[in-house]
Amino acid sequence: MPPYIFEKRNGRASILHMAEEPIKLYQYNTLGALMAGLYGGTMTIGELLTHGDLGVGTLDSIDGELIVLDGKAYQAKGDKTITELSDEVKVPYAAVVPHHAEVMFKQRFTATDKELEERIESYFDGENLFRSVKIHGTFAKMHVRMIPKAKEGTKFVKVSEHQPEYEVENVTGTIVGIWTPEMFHGVSVAGYHLHFITDDYSFGGHVMDFILEEGDVEIGAIDQLDQAFPVQDRKYLFARLNIDELKQDINEAE
Ligand SMILES: [Zn+2]
Is 153 buried (19+), middle (13-18) or exposed (0-12) by CB count in 10 A? Predict the structure, then answer.
């Protein structure tokens, strides 16, 4: 029996989680490979979306930020455009999960990202499980960046030195992402990795900081980590990675 039931509602694929099945965070490829400059897309959006309906990632040639919201995938590029992605588009790195809200609360007064994160973490059962995060609301400020397209082999940390950043005011939209326990730093980015997209799909990117005016916050449970590797990608298989450098790069770039 498949772990999830997919349902098409209003043209959107949604995943009905079956309570008896564990909720798996599916990570495709490794941050290490990305940091080292392996930017070639090797998994299709179509396949990625069978593993989850909420998540983050990047595109082939790190051409912008991948935002997975409600079972659909979007690309936020450095030129400030948003495109909905078709199933054939390939990604080099992504993390998705069938988001299943366990804790929901309303944020009724203005909060900075730090204040909201503190409130979110107050609902965690300890610090050792991954969580999915979804925040829909009106943002007094939203500051994002988009990783710009780069040639394979150029180190991520080098590319990230010069990336477009935008700050907008009074936007309504959704933040999606993953919270990673400290002990998994390296496998993923410890703490929050959040991407944002407006309700009208006109603006989005990798979240740097924000001020939420009011909104609805959902924290999802995650029971398992499913780490998939690009097993047919020769570049990945035979890449010589400098692990100390990788850890430093993740700290700097993410
Ligand atoms: Zn990101």
Answer: exposed
Dihedral-angle region of residue 249 (phi above 0 means left; psi in -120 to 50 means alpha; beta otherwise): alpha
Cβ neighbors of 67 (< 8 A, separation 6 or more) are 56, 73, 74, 75, 76, 176, 195, 196, 197, 204
Domains and CATH numbers, the chain: 4-253 (3.30.1330.80)
Residue of 71, 100, 56, 87 lying closest to 12 (CA atoms): 71
The encoded tokens of residue 114 equal 């730090």
Find the 186 Cα to ligand 1 centroid distance in Å. Answer: 14
Ligand 1 midpoint to CA 177 (Å): 9
Instruction: Show the tokens assigned to 39.
Output: 């930017």
CB 43 within 8 A of CB 230: yes
Structure tokens at 14: 């949604």
Which residue from 182, 58, 32, 164 is spatially nearest to 121, judged by alpha carbons? 182
Give the β-pairing of 165-180 and 131-145.
antiparallel
* Ligand 1 centroid – CA 10 distance (Å): 28
Closest CA to 96 of 144, 145, 44, 137: 44
pLDDT tens digits along 108-128? 999 999 999 999 999 999 999
148 CA to centre of ligand 1 in angstroms = 12
Task: Summarize pLDDT for 173-192 with one digit per residue, the tens.
Answer: 999 999 999 999 888 889 99
